[in-house]
Every structure is written in structure tokens, then in C-alpha cells.
Amino acid sequence: MVLESLLSPANAEKKRYLMLGFGFLASLVAGLVTYAIFLGTNLEIYASMAIVFFTALACVPLMYNIIKYEEEKDLQDLKENLLLKEHGKALAAFMFLFVGITIGMTLLFITLPWETVNNFFASQIDTLNIIRGGSSTTGMMTYFGVTPEQVELFGKIFFNNVMVLVVAILFSFVYGAGAIFVLTWNASVIATAIGVFIRNNLAAYSDLVGLPMVAKHFHIISVGLLKYSIHGIPEILAYFTAALAGGIISVAVIRHDFGTAKFEHIILDSADLVLISLGLLFVAAFLEVWITPIFFPF
Predict the structure, then answer these.
(1) Structural domain that includes position 172
(2) Full-prediction pTM beyond 0.70?
């Protein structure tokens, strides 16, 4: 394939802005391919999943090569703290990839006609409606102390995120880089949420022209991104950390490293990554319940 040949694992970790561009380009290409295939057909109802599939498909080879690259580091007998620092480079690259995908899909959402958006992001819009419908307790919160509603919501969010974490680990273990499909879906849902926020707010200022219009557009887009970044960044980082853990074990098994002392080191390293991912999910749930509503109480 052409897209993944643009980046090597080493370059992806050193020049992370290229991963941002790669994710952005992959999502736009996926949108154009989906638009060309599904527009005007009776199969438009499947377009929302097709965008996710085509985007993830472009990212799988690169993500798998990076995971292989990280597994090779496990075989170098590095100390655990140095090894985790090395894995941090891969995780940073994955995060830039995710942000690029999210920005690309957000751009598609806010630039395509509403009728096309409603078809091409139908599943994501339905998912958002379900999430919002199940989070009505947010409006009952107080910002000082801890209420039963907050504790209940925290437990629900943390448990749901742990389930996604388990799926990410399993997908990476079974399919090598399979977790990218789960993460691309999450990127598309976040892009939809940001896109809805931006389009709804821009509509209220459609009468502005010139610099005031530019300033208001910039403000709304920035707020839309920030609203979902406060808790979204640690949450997505947790999924990528877990995916890296599952992928490293998967590559080790494929290479028949199991049964050796080095495989035990790989298992220990992967266990550390899983524990870190759980800690990140705890932080993300805390931010979503107690911090984000302070700045965005709507």
C-alpha cells in the first residue's frame, strides 16, 4: 500500500508531526473513497462504518510495524524504566496519529452537507445520543465535594472504559494491530461530537463577516477541541498503552519467543503497560466527572 510506505517506525517515533499528517491524510482519503463508493446508492447506511474501516485499514501496517519495533526493544535487555521511556515514544506517535484522524474526520463532518453528514456519520450520531441519554446525572452534580450521583457516574464511566481497554488488548493480541479499529471508531465518535458542537455554534453566528467571523470560528473550534481533550487525552492514551501491551505479546508469540527468559521480560513489560493504562483510565474518569463539567457545564 502507498500510505504506510511514507513512514518507517523510527521516523514515526522521531517525527511525530508526520504521524499527525498521516492520520489526517488517512481519514480524508477514507472519506473521499467512501463518498465515491456510497454516495447516491442504497448502501449509504453503511457509510459510517466504511469511513472507520478504510481509515483503520490504512493505519494497520504502520501501527503493526511500530509494535514490532517496540517488541525488538524488549529483547535488548534494557532496564524497565528505560524500556518504558522507549515505549513512550511509540505511544506519543500513536497519540499524534489519533489526533490526526480526529481532526480529519472533524473536518469532513463540518464541511460536508448536512444530508451527507447524517448518512456518513449515522452510527456515530446514534452512539452520541445513547451516551448523552445515559449521562443525565451530569446535570445533578455539584462542583464541591462528592455526591452519590458523581460516584455512580464515575464507576459507570470507569467500568465502561475498562471494557473497551480489554477489547483493545484482545484485538491487539489476536490481530497484531487490531486495536486500531476500536481506536479509529472512538476517533470518529469524538470527531462527531466536536463537529456537532462546532456546527451548532457556528450557525448562531452565521451573520458575522470579516475578522469577527474568523475570530468566532477560531474560538468555537478551539473550545470544541478542548471540551473533549481534558479527559479524552488520558483515556485514548490508556487504550493505546493497552494496545501496545497486547501487540508486543502477539509479536513475541509469532516470533516464537515464548518459553524463554526474554519472553518473561516481555510479559513483565506488558503487565506494567496494562497497569499504567488502568491508572490513566482512572485519571480520565476523574477528569470527566469532576473537572470537565466545571469548564463545560453543558
Answers:
(1) 3-295
(2) yes
